[in-house]
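Objective 1.3, modelling of assemblies. Example input:
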Amino acid sequence: MANPFIQRATIEDEVRAALAATLRLDAEGIDLDSSIVTDLGATSIDFLDINFRLESTFGIRLATQLLLDHVEEELGEGTAIDKDDKITAAAASLMKRYLGERPGLEAGIFAEEIPAFVTPRVLVKSVEGITDELPEKCTHCGEAAWKSDDGKKVACGACSKPAEYPDGDELTKRWIQAFEQEHHLFGGG
Amino acid sequence: MSHLEGKVALVTGSSRGIGQAIARRLAEDGADVVVHGRNPKGPTAAGAEVFRDEVRGFGRKAEVFFADLTDKDAVGRLVGEVETAFGRLDVLVLNAARAPFKETTRLFERDLRMLVETNFMAPVFCVQKALPLLEVAGGDIVFISSLGSRFMNPQYPLGPMKAAMESMTRQWAEELGPQGIRANAVCAGLVKTDAYKTLRRLWPGLEQLPEELFVTPEEVAGVVSFLTRPDASAIRGQTIVADRGLSNRILRGP
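Predicted structure (tokens):
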């Protein structure tokens, strides 16, 4: 269910702002479909900064583990990344669903090449996936009285505590389970 | 300030962070410096070359050599390059480290192999291959450890590797002492390097700790510098804790 307080345009603006601040770029010029690594020049360490900024802005916790690591935890070691550190056919299908079809995103590429396929739009989707999980009622006082002053952070109008969302790792696991139940590519589900 | 004049120091993992601060300090102490990085195409490779030029700027010889230290043959080639370019090796600082951050029960086999290969086998390879040069020089080995060696930290499987290496340092001190080689370790507390960016996402409350509890890379480098001085000649096989007193606190709150 969409979060009534947080507009997608706000998330897009904040993703651009986080990328711009970390990578010292002009926010206006960031194309949401560019590669954060190859086009915008981010390193793996930069992703930590970018995520940290988004977490602080929206009061959320993004996933800390890589998607394919989660796949192997849920569906078995070796199902996503083979002995040569290359991604399996099943993993490639799952990555395409998650990241969108991108040239070169195929089975047999090295797992460490995957960050190059992450776009600002994927970050928007990750943030929105969490903020859309705003619970019906406050987990602290049980009131249904959410409010937001800035269209980014949501707090309880009754007890003032910040909204508690499920974290990104938890949502990733749910998403993987749902994907496998639908497609049966990993031999589980 | 120049007790290392005419001497050569190799600092593994010195393209950034604590390793770079150590290499800079040893150069200030007079040493010619070997900057080491893992991957010539990696994100820190360009920074390593900028840093090399900085060291050259204050009149020291400096080179950047890349090597995957988990590959024993590559370590052999690295030491060969040091010998060819510098002719000697006096100080070996074992700083390079790499680890996943997750509970130990969730480590994949590849995670565990990477942990052991990078953080345990690689430094042993370095000492084995550098031994002939260190023997000639009567050199120093300094291992860079962390508080994870003795205190449990959440999602920090690097800790047990650091414990093993502090033990290895004692082993080296005894085995290599007769050849005139000293081996010691510096156990650093919380340092705000790139790794901290991961830790602050995993350890709630870390951001609330007072600034005074954070050790600077330069402070770690200062202890390494001391351990390479003649003044430290009686210190053998020890791990010096440099944590601004963090580990003395039973409660880690602010």
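The longest strand of chain A covers residues 146-147.
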